[in-house]
Amino acid sequence: MARISGVNLPPNKRIEAALPYIYGLGISLSRRALQATGVDPNKRTKELSTEEENKLRVYIEKNFKTEGQLRQEVTMNIKLLKEIGARRGYRHSRGLPVRGQRTKTNSRTRRGNVRRTMGSGRKTSAEKT
Questions:
Q1: What is the CATH number of the domain that holds 44?
Q2: How many domains does the chain fold into?
Q3: Which of the chain's ends, N or C, has fewer CB atoms near its CB within 10 Å?
């Protein structure tokens, strides 16, 4: 089983589709890494030789920030926004949408399924309608 950046890659997927399981790698960076190392993108993860696996591991760890390193950087950036009192930091700390979306409606994903008025609560399936 291939293990890169602390992530076990799914064995039955094509390596091009398996690499995005690593946090910080998308499909385009996956393709770039495969092209640079000379690994066939149509190979399944379980079909990789140990040499190819090592090439990929070394290339990815050397050229891209992934997993813990990237998560830590993102967390530090958000913490900095909060410390300097930026509007985005305030929105992060309050758990509100950060990028200018409306909040009167349609912010359930960010706030959780919060219904703030009395009549807007959902009826349970057991209640009569």
A1: 1.10.8.50
A2: 2
A3: C
**What does pTM read for this prediction?**
0.74
Distance CA 25, CA 5 (A): 11
Q: Does residue 24 contact residue 64 with C-beta atoms inside 8 Å?
A: yes
Using an 8 Å Cβ cutoff, are 73 and 65 in contact? yes
How do residues 88-127 score in pLDDT, each as one tens digit? 999 999 989 999 888 888 888 888 887 777 666 566 667 6
- How far from 107 is each of 32, 44, 84, 102, CA to CA, in Å? 36, 40, 25, 7
What's the one-letter identity of residue 14?
R
Q: How far apart are CA 107 and CA 91, in angstroms?
A: 13
Both tokens assigned to 45? 């993860």
